[in-house]
């Protein structure tokens, strides 16, 4: 189920709205709240539009739309499809209500009243066996599979910005292509060294025979 939901502005990480959790029963969320704040601080315009970040037994999922980041914390076993559907519903409603006010917001949680919609929507996604959620899980999952999964230590442990996650992924793919290219070149050179002298000798013999018997 969605345990913690925070909405923040990408340009400066300013929290705009969040789900109001009862600290008496959710004190274990403090660590994750701090991690969420660090994630927001590392966002930039080039950060991945959708990302899942593993953190112990939990996973952060977020989407970025219109300069706003919508983030939710769920258990690792919670379906990724439902987590992103949940965020998409929040994004549509929040954008409808506050899109023109996001840039001018100056204080944290300026749109805290949005919590009422968060709580109402969260209830719909609590039970993964509910028929509406089962139907969503049966939809095409191709787009969800394309969303990158990373680890909280990779994002925060070395102080990397989230946009660097995509850059590192691209470098790994480029490195793999370069390695394959070099391996192909080396194989060609090895074949030339192995069979080159033989091919040269045969060519010389054929050339001598040609000039002798023409």
From TrEMBL:
One GO CC term on file: endoplasmic reticulum membrane
Gene Ontology MF: a single term: SNAP receptor activity
One Gene Ontology biological process: endoplasmic reticulum to Golgi vesicle-mediated transport
CDD domains per UniProt: Longin (cd14824), R-SNARE_SEC22 (cd15866)
Gene3D superfamilies from the UniProt entry: 1.20.5.110, Longin domain
Signal peptide range: none
Keywords annotated in UniProt: Coiled coil, Endoplasmic reticulum, Golgi apparatus, Membrane, Protein transport, Transmembrane, Transmembrane helix, Transport
Domain V-SNARE coiled-coil homology, chain residue ranges per copy: 133-193
Protein name, UniProt field: Uncharacterized protein
Originating organism: Diacronema lutheri (Unicellular marine alga)
Organism classification: Eukaryota, Haptista, Haptophyta, Pavlovophyceae, Pavlovales
């Amino acid at each position: 189920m969605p345990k913690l939901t925070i909405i923040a502005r990408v340009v400066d990480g300013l929290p705009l709205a969040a789900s109001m959790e009862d600290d008496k029963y959710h004190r274990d969320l403090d660590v994750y709240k701090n991690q969420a704040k660090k994630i927001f601080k590392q966002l930039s315009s080039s950060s991945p539009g959708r990302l899942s970040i593993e953190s112990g037994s939990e996973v952060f999922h977020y989407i970025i739309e219109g300069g706003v980041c919508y983030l939710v914390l769920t258990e690792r076993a919670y379906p990724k499809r439902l987590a992103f559907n949940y965020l998409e519903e929040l994004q549509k409603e929040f954008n409808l209500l506050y899109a023109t006010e996001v840039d001018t917001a100056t204080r944290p949680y300026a749109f805290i009243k949005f919590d009422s919609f968060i709580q109402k929507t969260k209830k719909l996604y609590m039970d993964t066996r509910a028929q509406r959620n089962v139907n969503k899980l049966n939809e095409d999952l191709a787009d969800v599979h394309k969303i990158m999964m990373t680890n909280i230590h990779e994002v925060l442990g070395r102080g990397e910005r989230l946009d660097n996650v995509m850059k590192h992924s691209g470098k790994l793919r480029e490195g793999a292509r370069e390695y394959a290219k070099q391996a192909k070149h080396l194989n060609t050179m090895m074949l030339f060294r192995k069979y080159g002298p033989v091919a040269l000798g045969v060519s010389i013999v054929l050339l001598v025979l040609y000039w002798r018997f023409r």
